[in-house]
Design a protein that fits this description.
Pfam families: ArsP_1. Keywords: Cell membrane, Membrane, Transmembrane, Transmembrane helix. It is a multi-pass membrane protein. By secondary structure, the chain is mainly α. It has one domain. It contains 17 helices and no strands. Helix 8 runs antiparallel to helix 9.
Length: 334
């Protein structure tokens, strides 16, 4: 237990980096880390470096695993299952694909055109941007393992339930006709060598870092501002755990934004430290990652308004229920 705690503190929370940045701020910048300016600079440098280190390592590992599950192979695996078991498997496969909601949509088109039930593809579409293996580690590094595991579990449950409801409603006619005519090429996947997989993983790291670095800097910057410059009384007045509308407000504030969990985590961390409910912070993260406005606009190109509305409604209600549940039982996690 002591060894696990030490590894958790040094490898995930990176206490060594925290102490190093403290020395940097005090001795190089000549600032007191307890002052607003010194604390903001410390928060920014420490979180940026920590997130980029964890992100690079985790995306490399996840991409190596993902190299065994290209879209065609994933589609064939899903095609062997029916009913809720297919929804569960689709949600689980979504956790090993580090895609944002927009990049998941081409896979949704490919899976649907290849004949998979739309409920199964929606389970994948919900799970892929919302939950991935990297989010488990990053959440554990910011909060703790109980919160990280609980977040992943409720994310997968939401994906399974959402996809199952859409399956039961028989909404295939509300997918645009061109999706079904856009047949996926039935090509055999070339077997990759270990070096090919390593090369693929390196490319994925560079590609994802290039896509998210700005959002990370913005997210950490906002987190530093919330943590050190916005009075706790102001934040709790708007999003305090005693406010019944806090989860609702956080969810709908997150929807117009376009980021991923890596950019929203520092904001959620700062909000929780300021007294905002855990469920409220997680609802904000889920709103940003699962219901971002750009992804909704893209999805509107491939499904008709009724199906789009049902999808948004299911995910929104799920996020709200998750947020209020976490707020109610936050004492079990913190």
């Amino acid at each position: 237990m002591i060894i696990f705690e030490w590894l958790n503190n040094q490898l995930l929370k990176m206490e060594w980096l925290y102490n190093l940045v403290t020395l940097l701020v005090q001795n190089i910048f000549g600032l007191d880390v307890n002052s607003k300016l010194g604390s903001s600079i410390h928060f920014f440098i420490y979180d940026v470096i920590k997130i980029f280190i964890l992100l690079s390592v985790l995306i490399f590992m996840i991409s190596y695993i993902q190299s065994f599950f290209p879209p065609e192979r994933t589609r064939k695996i899903l095609g062997k299952f029916n009913g809720i078991s297919a929804n569960i498997l689709a949600a689980l496969l979504g956790t090993v694909t580090p895609f944002c909601s927009c990049s998941s949509i081409p896979l949704f088109i490919g899976f649907t055109s290849a004949g998979l039930p739309i409920g199964v593809t929606f389970s994948f579409l919900i799970s892929s941007p919302l939950v991935d293996l990297a989010s488990v580690i990053l959440l554990a590094s910011v909060f703790n393992w109980k919160i990280a595991i609980a977040y992943v579990v409720v994310g997968i449950v939401l994906a399974v339930i959402g996809g199952s409801i859409i399956s039961k409603l028989k909404l295939e006619e509300y997918v645009e006709p061109f999706v079904y005519s856009n047949k996926m090429l039935e090509a055999e996947q070339e077997e990759l060598t270990a070096m090919n997989r390593i090369g693929f993983a390196k490319e994925q790291v560079l590609d994802i870092i290039q896509k998210v670095w700005l959002y990370i800097l913005i997210g950490v910057g906002i987190g530093a501002a919330i943590h050190n410059w916005i009075p706790e009384s102001v934040i709790t007045a708007l999003l305090g755990q005693d406010k019944w509308y806090s989860v609702l407000l956080a969810t709908f504030v997150g929807i117009p934004m376009y980021a991923d969990i890596f950019g929203t985590l520092p904001i959620a961390e700062a909000l929780v430290l300021k007294g905002v409910g855990l469920g409220t912070a997680l609802s904000f993260m889920m709103g940003v990652t699962a219901l971002s406005l750009p992804s909704i606009i893209m999805l509107k190109k491939v499904v008709k308004p009724k199906l789009l509305g049902i999808f948004i409604g299911i995910v929104t209600i799920g996020i709200l229920l998750i947020g209020y549940t976490f707020n109610t039982f936050s004492y079990l996690f913190i």
